[in-house]
Write a structure and sequence with these properties.
Layout: E1 18-20, E2 23-24, E3 36-37, E4 42-46, E5 58-59, E6 71-79, E7 85-89, E8 100-110, H1 126-134, E9 140-152, E10 160-161, E11 165-167, E12 171-176, E13 184-200, E14 203-220, E15 227-236, E16 244-245, E17 259-260
Parallel strand pairs: 4-9, 11-15
Antiparallel strand pairs: 1-2, 3-5, 6-7, 6-8, 8-9, 10-12, 12-14, 13-14, 14-15, 16-17
Length: about 260
């Protein structure tokens, strides 16, 4: 016999522009692909550091991504704690951002749909953008992974209240007046000898034997750098010990002699 006709029935319509198996539509499938973001998934830097001018690019496992003539790529920046997105931008420079935790996700989109992309309104979350994409509101695709950036605030040197002159052999206290329990404080005695040292929370107690002394209060901050306040201490010699010898009970109007040894 003769083969008069033939056709193929696709059970998976993705990528061929067909709405139903065997029935081709005129529309073209969305080819947006957010890929996988390059670089570390977690970054911690200090506010204003040049390292926050990030370079992040998508990778496609050896592929080239969607056609550049029809698709473009941008980034969604959101609050990492609330998921509320703050901006859609091609600029991943966070050096002007205030301290906080941010999430950067890649977004591939059809250039013809750029005007349909959402804008930040203070309530829209990244999950809402994913829902809009799934609902077909516009042709786009979020990256399969995001980058979390934590920006820490620099700290000021600690402020210390306490005497600058002490007597040898007497315990003396110094107080950190702007103490923050979330920070890690260290105290170093760089000069002078002492017989007693105790540092708890915001209070330092030292008994110097001789001087001059120097005490340094340090805030350990591995991200923004340590901050330190040092004070110079004059250690005065202790007063000589002496004994007063004389009567301890006297009558009114009488004269009593005392000697000092």
């Amino acid at each position: 016999g003769e083969l008069l006709d033939w056709y193929l029935v696709f059970t998976d319509d993705s990528g061929i522009g067909c709405a139903n198996a065997g029935e081709c539509a005129n529309s073209v499938s969305c080819l947006a692909d957010g890929g996988q973001l390059s670089g570390p998934a977690f970054i911690t830097e200090c506010e204003g550091d040049n390292e926050l001018d990030l370079t992040i690019n998508p990778s496609y496992g050896g592929g080239g991504g969607p056609p550049a003539s029809e698709y473009d790529y941008t980034f969604v920046i959101a609050d990492a704690n609330t998921d509320i997105f703050e901006d859609i931008t091609m600029d991943t420079d966070l050096s002007s951002f205030p301290p906080g935790a941010y999430q950067i996700c890649g977004l591939s989109y059809l250039i013809a749909d750029e005007s349909l992309l959402p804008t930040a309104d203070g309530s829209l979350e990244v999950s809402d953008i994913e829902d809009q994409i799934d609902d077909g509101d516009y042709c786009a695709d979020l990256s399969s992974g995001c980058t979390v950036v934590v920006i820490e605030a620099p700290v000021s040197p600690p402020t210390i209240a306490g005497p600058l002159e002490v007597c040898a052999g007497e315990p003396v206290e110094w107080l950190i007046t702007d103490y923050d329990p979330s920070l890690n404080y260290q105290v170093f005695i760089n000069a002078g000898s002492f017989s007693f040292f105790n540092f708890v929370d915001d209070l330092l107690t030292v008994e110097f034997i001789s001087g001059p002394g120097e005490i340094c209060f340090n805030i350990d901050n591995p991200v923004c750098g340590d901050e330190e306040t040092c004070i110079d201490i004059v250690v005065l010699p202790s007063a000589p010990e002496f004994e007063i010898i004389g009567e301890t009970e006297v009558c009114p109007g009488t004269t009593t002699l005392y000697t000092v040894e």
